[in-house]
Specification:
Elements lengths: L7 E7 L4 H11 L4 E6 L6 H7 L3 E4 L8 H15 L5 E6 L2 E3 L3 H11 L3 E10 L6 H10 L4 E3 L6 E4 H6 L11 H11 L3 E12 L6 H22 L8 H24 L1 H8 L1 H12 L4 H13 L1 H17 L10
Parallel strand pairs: 1-2, 1-4, 2-3, 6-9
Antiparallel strand pairs: 4-8, 5-9, 6-8, 7-9
Helix pairs in contact: 5-12, 7-8, 8-9, 8-13, 9-10, 9-13, 11-12
């Protein structure tokens, strides 16, 4: 007896992902699911590659600023129009390859847990050994198993729940997945992280400048998320935003002031940074080298995170349009 259809549709999004997109779509071709690829102005042949792999292609209007949230919403609308009988929708970034076992497992979980709106699994970095920045991504993806507050860009969602809260906020340039999860949880839904392989991600991040820009985007997301949902009881990303302001802004300002008054005091305050690195590293659960590198870049990352918050504040005050912050 053949297995029943999954009732799962997939929305893949991308912009100039090249071979990464081809791997993403190839991983889906044999799974018997409807695939919509939403392109945000690629110039590298991504659209042609998607069409040769039987994906339904949606081209975003280039006159409206691109965001991942906008692309996912457009893909959802296309799926709802062409396949109204679907129950679940898998969102995946175009630089990720979906594990062969993931969709049946995740769909079965949602089918048997009616109060769960979103389920995600383990997203791994394809080449964590190539750079400390790729390694940082792999550690970031390794979130705790069980009930969760948020998901990332790769997740299987219940279509009814997604539609109930209006999908992603299309104006967010970063942090759109946790923001969606805030609204889903407020509506009574639960978010779950399974102990299962889900996707293989290819950050291809080998330069310090790439890491800096990506971390700046994270700081921007912290500030915007706190502005939207920072009030009690949610207090969305308030702690993360405050940490970046303290370590990336307030302490450096205090060091500068103390240096002008008495330079010895400024050196004493600067010792807070290596002490924080040691505190984080000694609590790490990996190999010693991994723990120390992770700690160094977590602390160093407070500076671009603080700049990202400044960028969000300036955009809010000036009223300018939000633009993508791309590290690739």
């Amino acid at each position: 007896m053949s297995n029943p259809p999954l009732r799962v549709g997939v929305v893949a999004i991308g912009r100039n992902e090249g071979p990464r997109l081809e791997k993403c779509l190839d991983s889906l071709r044999l799974q018997g699911v409807k695939v919509v690829y939403v392109d945000s102005g690629s110039t590298d042949g991504s659209v042609a590659a998607a069409r040769t792999r039987d994906a339904d292609v949606v081209l975003l209007d280039m006159n409206t600023p691109f965001t991942a949230a906008r692309a996912r919403n457009a893909g959802f609308e296309r799926l709802r129009q062409t396949s109204p009988d679907l129950a679940y929708i898998q969102f995946v970034d175009g630089d990720c390859e979906i594990a062969a076992t993931w969709l049946p497992l995740a769909a079965a979980y949602l089918a048997s847990h009616g109060d769960v709106a979103v389920v995600s699994g383990r997203r791994r970095e394809r080449h964590p050994e190539r750079s400390v920045f790729n390694m940082m991504c792999d550690l970031e993806w390794n979130t705790p198993v069980g009930e969760a507050r948020y998901c990332g860009g790769d997740a299987l969602m219940r279509i009814g729940a997604y539609a109930q809260v209006g999908g992603f906020r299309a104006d967010l340039i970063a942090g759109e997945e946790p923001e969606l999860c805030v609204r889903l949880r407020a509506a009574g839904w639960r978010i779950w992280r399974l102990d299962a392989e889900m996707t293989l991600h290819d950050a291809d991040m080998t330069r310090f400048s790439q890491w800096w820009i990506r971390t700046l985007r994270t700081g921007y997301a912290f500030a915007q998320g706190a502005a939207l949902h920072g009030a009690p009881p949610e207090r969305h990303w308030m702690r993360e935003a405050r940490s970046a302001r303290v370590w990336g802004g307030m302490i450096p300002a205090m060091v500068l002031v103390l240096f002008l008054i008495r330079w010895e005091w400024s050196l004493l305050l600067l010792c807070a940074y290596p002490l924080q690195v040691a505190h984080i590293a000694l609590k790490g659960g990996g190999a010693a080298r991994e723990n120390w590198l992770h700690a160094v870049f977590l602390v160093l990352g407070k500076f671009p995170e603080a700049l990202g918050q400044v960028k969000f504040l300036w955009r809010s005050v000036s009223g300018g349009p939000a633009r993508l912050i791309e590290y690739k």
